[in-house]
Structures are given as structure tokens and as C-alpha cells.
Write a structure and sequence with these properties.
Length: about 550
């Protein structure tokens, strides 16, 4: 998958030529209008432009017509309804999805995009490559193409360029916490479009929390009747029906994004346990907690497993993807230590202690899902200690570098588990650039820090490293209209780390490119925030 050498250097043709030959004289990349983020592996610019006209044609075989239709829809931003045909017949002005059937011979690239004066040719090894080429192409057009209502522009041109591009990691995720705050289906679809633009391919959906259970489970109606309304705020009410979820999964699929649901257990479960208090150790409803709750599902009680397995049956029906995240973070064991049922289970199974009981609990559910062909992700907490071994279908998400350094990462690799790296320093986009609400100065970071100091980015190359994730937690009431300003522009740095192969641009060079996308973000209605503390205006509102 990975190109052997970095070529993200911009070259420009030395002579104006009809066929757009690409020469090797380097130009100052700061001066180039070509700003694609994440930056491609190799980009050679040439003189001249391709001009889209109402008579332009998209050529795509039927098997990838749906991707051509995605482009066709976006090109409506020009005011033109560009035709799609399935055969290349010497058209004068064409966007050609060059066929690659069957998709078996790999050349290690995601896609190649060649723009010349009369022709745009896209080739790819996989359908996803055509889609990523389309995302790149849309960034080559003037930003107004993204607008729903400005068709006033006279000319829609794309600079001649040859781009070869590949992804660094197969796993590139963004997590949204819909547990603490609820977001609408439209908001989530809007974010799926944003992820597609950034070539992020996993939407990790944190669906359950102390403050809200958001996924309908018809067998246990109280989960949503009660569990989706346990917090006080207006935007903390709500849940996703089966129809909502199917719509989101389908919308994501068209954008080559897998939706990975997270059911966070045994901790962060107050909302479920308020609905079904008989599944706690004390048989008492807890309080809906914003942070870490002392109350867990009782892992000694067989009814807990029956309940969770039934819940997971529905989760598997709704989410056809290969992965399910079962949380496992921040589960304090004081209550299990005192619970006779939990302690009895520990004794019966010859486990070491309550932490080992969590591994047994995790293993049992991972085995259950393994039989359904699923891989199961846990937050790194489950590998901090030795003890009960976890099955092979377990993947570890390394998150807590602030609290435990690289312990989860190292232990996961030692035990042969694949790892996703998305550490709280610095992949948690809810941390603002300057202190806000309960986020003090130790929980802030700026664009330079995320771009230059991300521990996930200094990983030793290892086949077990699946990729990188970033998270947007919604604690302390991060409502829908506050999310963009936390996510942008810093997510650009993360998307770059997830996608771009090889040497990086300097911070200044990259930030220059980032700023040049702000016109696009404005047209898309993305309310980007400041990148650096010194850019935060007096009185700036993070909420
Ligand atoms: C986490 O941030 N508690 C995974
Ligand atoms: Zn118990």
C-alpha cells in the first residue's frame, strides 16, 4: 500500500504544451494554488487547465457508476448536469474513470489522477481509490463548486496535474460521543461528508454513556424510554431508531466509511443501569455521571451476560461491518471488590482480582462476537495488567498516553493484538486550544502540538499497528454547534498523519495549505476555530 519514497514536491512544466508534459523543476509550493489535504504522495503540476463545460462527459463502467454519480451530484455545484456514459468514445472533454476489472493486480496506490487540457483520467486499484480520487478532484475545483446556491461563476477549471496517492494506514477513524450529548441524524451525515473529504474511513460512534443510551434495542425498550433521557440538558435527550441507524450506515457506505458502534461496558453505563438497575451489583439505580462512574454492570451475575449478548445481537444486525467496540475504559473496581456475586465468580474461575474479572467479562463477550465473525475493539485499559488472556479477535485502542504513557500500546503488541493509536495527547479534539469550562491549561493543545508531537505518529512500524483514530468527546456540554470549532482546523493535522505517506511538510508549509482551505470551509458552513492560542480573539466563545 505504501509508496517507497516521498515525492510530495511540486513540479511544474517548463514549457507550455498541448499534452501537459510534466517536468522536474521544483516550484515554491507556497505559491501553488494546489492545496489538497491530506497531501498526496506525489504531485506533479503542469501548466494549463482543464475546463469543465456543460458538454463534458463522465465515462464510468457500470460497476463503479455509483462513484461517478457521486461526482455528478457534486458537479451540480457548477450549475451543469454532467452526463455519465459507460463507454469511452473519443469525447472532446471527458472525466474518465479508467476501468480496472477485476480489481486484482495491485500497484500499491490508492489512485492516480491525471488532469490534462481536455481529459481527466482516474485510475485505481479498488473502488475506494476512485472515490478518494473524486475527493481530491473536488479540492482542485474552485471552492464555489461546494456551494449549493452560487452558480454565477463563468469558468470551472482544474489545474493540470498528475497525482499519485496512497494511504498510510488502513484504519483512519473519527469518534463522536453521542452518549453525553445527542446529535441529529442530519448532523451526523454532515460529519460523514466531512470525514469523506478528509479521506477518513471509519466513523467510530460512541453510542452509550453514563449520560445517555442512544441506540434503540427493541427487546429492552427501557434502554431508550428511560436511558436516553437520564441527563438534564435539552441536547442530551434522544436516541437513534433502527431506521436512523440503517440510514446512517448506508450514507457512510456510499462514502467508503465503515461505521463502528461502541457499546461502552462495564463502566460508563449509568444510563443503561438506571433503566435496568437489577444488573448492578447493588441492585440500585446509579446517578447519571458525566465523568467516571463508580457503578458497573455486575460481572458476577449471569443475567448481565444474557442481557448484553441480546443487546449485541441487535447491534450486529444493525451494523454489518467487521468491528464492534465494547469500551472497557475507566471501570473502577471498588464495587466489584465488595460484591459477593463478583467475588464468587473470581473464586470460581480462579481469577486474580477484579481487574482480571473485567478481562474475563471482555473475553466472554469478544468470544461471543467472534462466533458471529466480528472483531472487537477495547480501550487500552484491558491490557494494563497480565492475567486472563484476551482472544485473537481483540484489537486494542491506545488512548490514555497522559495517564499511562505507552503501556497499552506496548502490552497490546507484546500480546499480539492489533492496535489503533488515538491518544488523548493529542488526538482528542474536544481539548480546546485554550482553557474552557472544566478543561484547564493541562488539557489544551494547539495546531503545532498536534502536527509535530503526536505520539501516535512516532510509532515503530509494526504490522500490528492498524492505524490512527481521533475522538470528539462531548463532556461539559459540547453541543452540536460547538463541534466544528474544536474539530477544525486541527483535524487536518490528524488526517495528514493518518493518510500521508513519507516525509511531512514543515509546520509553516502545512499551515499555509490549511489556511488556504478556509474559503472552502466557509462555503461548506464549517465554523472552524482558532489553530493557536495567539489567534484566539479576546472574548472568543468556545460555547
Ligand atoms: C476515554 O477517553 N475514556 C476512552
Ligand atoms: Zn457484582
Amino acid at each position: 500500500m505504501i509508496m517507497s519514497k516521498l515525492f510530495v514536491k511540486i513540479f511544474i512544466a517548463g514549457i507550455v504544451c498541448f499534452s501537459c508534459n510534466y517536468s522536474n523543476s521544483r516550484v515554491d509550493r507556497k505559491a501553488t494554488p494546489i492545496n489538497i489535504i491530506p497531501t498526496p504522495t506525489e504531485l506533479n503540476a503542469a501548466k494549463g487547465t482543464f475546463k469543465l463545460t456543460p458538454a463534458s462527459v463522465i465515462v464510468a463502467e457500470d460497476s463503479i457508476k455509483y462513484i461517478a454519480e457521486f461526482l455528478q451530484e457534486k458537479l451540480k455545484g457548477t450549475g451543469y448536469n454532467i452526463r455519465i456514459v459507460n463507454e469511452n468514445k473519443d469525447f472532446k472533454n471527458v472525466i474518465y474513470f479508467k476501468p480496472k476489472n477485476p480489481f486484482d493486480e495491485k500497484n500499491g496506490l490508492s489512485y492516480q489522477l491525471n488532469v490534462s487540457l481536455k481529459k481527466i483520467v482516474i485510475s485505481a486499484d479498488e473502488p475506494s481509490g476512485y472515490f478518494y480520487a473524486v475527493q481530491t478532484l473536488l479540492q482542485l475545483f474552485p471552492p464555489e463548486i461546494l456551494s449549493k446556491d452560487s452558480h454565477t461563476r463563468k469558468e470551472w477549471s482544474v489545474p493540470c496535474v498528475d497525482i499519485k496517492d496512497a494511504a498510510k494506514y488502513n484504519w483512519r477513524s473519527f469518534m463522536l460521543d453521542s452518549g453525553r450529548q445527542f446529535q441529529t441524524v442530519d448532523f451526523i451525515k454532515r460529519y460523514l461528508d466531512i470525514l469523506a473529504m478528509l479521506k477518513i474511513n471509519v466513523f467510530h460512534w460512541h453510542l452509550t454513556e453514563g449520560q445517555g443510551w442512544r441506540i434503540e434495542i427493541k427487546k429492552y425498550p427501557k434502554l431508550t424510554e428511560i436511558g436516553s433521557k437520564v441527563a438534564d440538558g435539552e441536547e442530551q435527550q434522544g436516541y437513534y431508531t433502527y431506521e436512523d441507524i440503517r440510514e446512517i450506515v448506508e450514507y457512510a457506505k456510499k462514502r467508503f466509511i465503515t461505521v463502528v458502534p461502541e457499546i461502552d461496558i462495564p463502566g460508563h453505563s449509568d444510563a443503561a443501569l438506571i433503566a435496568y438497575p437489577e444488573l448492578t451489583c447493588q441492585k440500585q439505580a446509579p446517578k447519571a455521571t458525566m465523568g467516571v462512574s463508580p457503578v458497573l454492570f455486575c460481572a458476577g451475575n449471569e443475567k448481565t451476560y444474557e442481557f448484553l449478548q441480546n443487546v449485541l445481537d441487535t447491534v450486529c444486525e444493525l451494523f454489518p461491518g467487521e468491528y464492534i467496540h465494547l469500551g472497557g475504559d475507566e471501570a473502577p473496581k471498588a464495587i466489584w471488590d465488595q460484591c459477593p456475586v463478583c467475588q464468587n465468580k473470581i473464586k470460581q474461575l480462579h481469577l486474580k482480582n477484579s481487574d482480571d474479572l473485567q478481562r474475563y467479562f471482555s473475553k466472554r463477550l469478544a468470544d461471543y462476537l467472534g462466533k458471529k465473525g466480528k472483531k472487537v475493539i477495547f480501550w487500552g485499559d484491558v491490557v494494563y495488567d497480565d492475567g486472563e488472556t484476551l482472544p485473537d479477535n481483540v484489537i486494542v485502542y491506545w488512548w490514555n498516553s497522559r495517564g499511562h504513557g505507552d503501556l497499552a500500546y506496548k502490552n497490546a503488541i507484546k500480546r499480539g493484538h492489533s492496535v489503533i493509536c488515538g491518544t488523548n495527547a493529542y488526538c482528542y479534539l474536544n481539548y480546546p486550544v485554550v482553557p474552557w469550562s472544566k478543561y484547564d491549561s493541562t488539557r489544551t493543545f494547539d495546531f503545532k502540538t498536534v502536527y509535530e508531537k503526536n505520539p501516535s505518529d512516532i510509532l515503530v512500524p509494526n504490522d500490528l499497528v492498524m492505524g490512527m483514530g481521533c475522538c470528539l468527546w462531548t463532556d461539559w456540554y459540547v453541543k452540536m454547534d460547538m463541534i466544528d470549532q474544536r474539530v477544525f482546523p486541527r483535524i487536518y493535522a490528524l488526517a495528514e498523519q493518518m493518510w500521508h505517506v513519507g516525509e511531512r511538510l514543515t509546520l509553516d508549509e502545512f499551515y499555509m495549505q490549511v489556511k488556504s482551505t478556509y474559503d472552502r470551509l466557509k462555503i461548506l458552513g464549517i465554523d472552524y476555530g482558532p489553530a493557536f492560542a495567539n489567534e484566539v480573539p479576546d472574548g472568543y466563545k468556545w460555547d
